[in-house]
Amino acid sequence: MLRDMVRKISINEFAPNAAEIDQREEFPWRNKKILEENGLLGIQVPEEYGGAGAGMVSLAIVVEEVARVCASTSVILTTQALATDPLIIAGNHEQKTKWLKPMAEGSVLGACAITEPGAGSDVTSISTTATRKDGGYLISGTKIFITDGGVSDVITVVAYTDKAKEHKGISLFIVPKGTPGFSVGKEERKLGIRGSDTRELIFEGCFLPEENMIGKPGDGFKILMKTFNYTRPGVAAQALGIAQGAMDAVISYCKERVQFKKRITDFQGIQWMIAEMSLKIELARTMIYRTCSTIDNEPDSRDIPRLASMAKWFASDTAMQVTTDAVQLLGGYGYSREYPVERMMRDAKITQIYEGTNQVQRVIVSNQLLG
Ligand SMILES: Cc1cc2nc3c(=O)[nH]c(=O)nc-3n(C[C@H](O)[C@H](O)[C@H](O)COP(=O)(O)OP(=O)(O)OC[C@H]3O[C@@H](n4cnc5c(N)ncnc54)[C@H](O)[C@@H]3O)c2cc1C
Predict the structure, then answer these.
(1) Structure pTM?
(2) Which of 16, 102, 287, 326 is most exposed by smallest CB count within 10 Å?
(3) pLDDT digits (tens, 9 = 90+) for 44-53
(4) Residue owning the nearest CA to atom 4 of ligand 1
């Protein structure tokens, strides 16, 4: 039922303006409103905090269906999950009531700010600091590449409360928009997901009361790693949706295209490329559902970090390969903006990079197996 509902919305509401959103490079506010009105921005958040309480398999299904037609719109879903999950994992009741509930209901957008000019894959090399002051903390530092950083009402910020303790000195803070000392910097111009807002965020002695810390001082890294276990399958579902959308476009185009007096789908070389696309898409889907159902049904399983990393790694590589082959199969039309596959190829690339590059996923998987 959920898939049918989201597919209908995606086809009727999101597909028609996906190319325009990409070309105008504008945040799709109208689509955000539709996600909010249909209760899709807190699908995995417990019901008592305003969500649907429907779990990770449901989140994956929603993300996949939206990404199948408009990856930029699906980024709203995955970013909201990235912002809400630290609160689900470690927020106290007051924080959940104040911040998580409106985010789950969709009236408030959230972002999560980890990356800095000198710190990407290695989170421990961040320079942002949170210094104790008058019953709270002063945050100073600059974040870059923050998805929805300019459109969000609440930002989860990662900072050192004690640098000497390395990863055990990292803490998480909730920064509401408008807090003095917090400003939004330049917007990044990007290869793909051009309808998502990617920003620099600047913190200059930004004062936050103690109650804005998520968890205890030094808990930040642990909360963040657990968050990624839940959000990487979401990025994987985004990649899966992009790949599925590209295969849909290939099938409908190739069945019509005639060359050498034959439909090009009569050539075995074309048939096999499409069969291989389908194989990888189904493998990615199976892996994502296995990961999500493990999270839903065995939340303490030690397999979760490895499964989440492998799902994101495999699905994003699949998206890149399927979309590149899709451009090839449409020939010159594939390279033209008249057809959606060139956009899908550009959109697919980010899924191999954010929330841990696919090299970092290999590090996580091998560490868990060998470490
Ligand atoms: C569109 C977009 C949206 C983003 N959204 C957010 C967001 O919302 N919040 C946020 O905090 N960040 C966000 N990011 C940042 C993103 O998570 C980082 O870009 C990513 O983690 C990689 O970090 P980096 O760019 O610094 O690359 P680096 O870490 O400098 O990596 C460079 C290269 O070295 C490789 N590498 C690094 N370490 C190793 C290793 N140990 N072994 C092998 N290879 C390695 C990497 O795989 C990569 O190929 C976003 C980025 C983009 C482009």
Answers:
(1) 0.98
(2) 16
(3) 999 999 999 9
(4) 145
Ligand 1 centroid – CA 352 distance (Å): 9
CA-closest residue to ligand 1 atom 24: 120
Q: What is the mean pLDDT of residues 204-213?
A: 97
pLDDT at 25 over 90: yes
Q: Is 237 in the pocket of ligand 1 (CB under 6 A)?
A: no
145 CB within 6 A, ligand 1? yes
| Model pLDDT for residues 301-347, shown as the tens digit of each residue | 999 999 999 999 999 999 999 999 999 999 999 999 999 999 999 99
355 assigned to active site:
yes
> How large is the average pLDDT for residues 125-144?
97
Atom of ligand 1 nearest to the CA of 79: 8
Cα Rg of the chain, angstroms: 21
Does residue 371 register a pLDDT over 90? no
Pick from 194, 357, 359 the residue to mutate for probing ligand 1's pocket: most ligand atoms within 8 Å of its CB: 357
What pairing do the DSSP bridges indicate for beta strands 154-160 and 110-113?
parallel
Q: Is the CB of 190 under 6 A from ligand 1?
A: yes
Residues 6+ apart with CB under 8 A from 230: 44, 56, 81, 85, 89, 295, 308
Could you tell me the pLDDT band of residue 352, with boundaries at 50, 70 and 90?
very high
User: If you search the block for the tokens 């689900």, which residue do you land on?
Assistant: 88
Specify the pLDDT at position 303: 96
